Amino acid sequence: MKRQVMCQLEEIPDGTMKAVELESRAIVLIRKGKEVFALRDTCPHQGARLSNGVLTSRRLSSVAGDYRAEKAKQIVRCPWHNWEFDAASGRCLHDPQRLRVAVYRTEIENGQVVIVTS
Ligand code: FES
Predict the structure, then answer these.
(1) What's the 47 CA to ligand 1 centre distance in angstroms?
(2) Cβ atoms of residues 84 and 92 within 8 Å
(3) What's the average model confidence in pLDDT over 23-52?
(4) Residue 15: left if φ>0, alpha if ψ -120 to 50, beta else—which one?
(5) Which distant-in-sequence residues (6+ apart) come within 8 Å of 14 by Cβ?
(6) Which atom of ligand 1 is nearest to the CA of 50?
(7) Which amino acids bring their CB within 6 angstroms of ligand 1?
(8) CA of 91: how far to CAs of 2, 75, 98, in Å?
(9) What is the domain range of residue 95?
(10) Looking at the 3D structure of the chain, how many domains does it have?
């Protein structure tokens, strides 16, 4: 197991993203409360940096005009063509079986965000 400190937790305000690099790979860290998710910072569609997108929620509706939101600040919307990805799984909301971005395991240690790789 390899453990690499990416930044201090306090550098990522709750509900925001931070772009970092891990061995020359672009990674986006996404903070949601006490959790930090880590995704490859490259959209699988045409390569936009997801860290330049926005964090939003997943909106669900069973009838027209009645919406409820879930996973607040956990959905990353690509800045170029609005594909959306769940920060926890990396799966694209539009086609979760086929489209996803890589996710990395994270831990918080002594106030530092650590990515753990094998
Ligand atoms: S580059 Fe991300 S949706 Fe097109």
Answers:
(1) 6
(2) yes
(3) 97
(4) left
(5) 31, 32, 33, 73
(6) 2
(7) 43, 45-48, 78, 80-81, 83
(8) 24, 10, 8
(9) 2-117
(10) 1
Q: Take atom 1 of ligand 1 and give the residue whose Cα is closest.
A: 46
Average pLDDT over residues 34-52: 97
pLDDT at 61 over 90: no
In the numeric block, which tokens belong to residue 44?
């699988």
At residue 27, what is the residue type? I
pTM of this prediction? Answer: 0.93
The C-alpha atoms of residue 46 and residue 80 are separated, in whole angstroms, by 8
Residue whose C-alpha is closest to residue 55's, from 96, 88, 97: 88
- Are 55 and 76 in contact, with CB atoms under 8 Å apart? yes
CA of 2 to the centre of ligand 1 (A): 31
Token output for 111: 């106030």
Can you give the CATH number for the domain in which 28 is found? 2.102.10.10
Q: Which atom of ligand 1 is nearest to the CA of 46?
A: 1
Query: Of the candidates 49, 44, 37, 51, which has an alpha carbon nearest to the alpha carbon of residue 93?
Result: 44
Q: How far apart are CA 37 and CA 103, in angstroms?
A: 8
